[in-house]
Specification:
With 129 residues, this protein is α+β, with helices and mostly antiparallel strands. The chain contains 5 helices and 5 strands; from the N terminus they run E-H-H-H-H-E-E-H-E-E. The strands form 2 sheets. The protein has a 3-stranded antiparallel β-sheet with strand order 1-5-4.
Amino acid sequence: MKIAGTGIDLVEVSRIGEALERHGDRFLTRVFTPAEVAYSRSGGVFTEHLAGRFAVKEAVLKALGTGWTGRMRWRDIEVRTRSSGEPSVELAGSAARRARDLGIVRIHISISHTREHAVAHAIAEAESA
C-alpha cells in the first residue's frame, strides 16, 4: 500500500455554533448526514462533535486533492464510529468517484477536539503500483 494523499483541518467550534444559530436545520441537513447528527447529539458535546466531523470532511477533501473544486457535496463524506469507538469515513457520490479514480482503497482518519477547536487528519491509502 502507498499513501495517495493526506489532509488536515482545524475548525473553531464557535464557527460551527454560529452556523447553527444562523441557519439551524438547514445547515445540519446540508452538511451532515442524519447518522452524524444523531451521534453528535448523543455525547453531550453536540457542537464539538459536529466541528470534528466538519474538520474530517475538509481533511478528506484535501487528501483527495480536490478541495471543493471537485463539486463534491458535504454529505458525500460521512464520518462513522465503529463499535470500538474508532472513527471511520464512508464516501459516496463525487467523493467516492474521485477516490476510485485515484485508486484509493481506504482513508484513515483521526479527530480530536476541545471546547474551542476541533482538528482532523486524513490519510488516503492506495494500492501499490
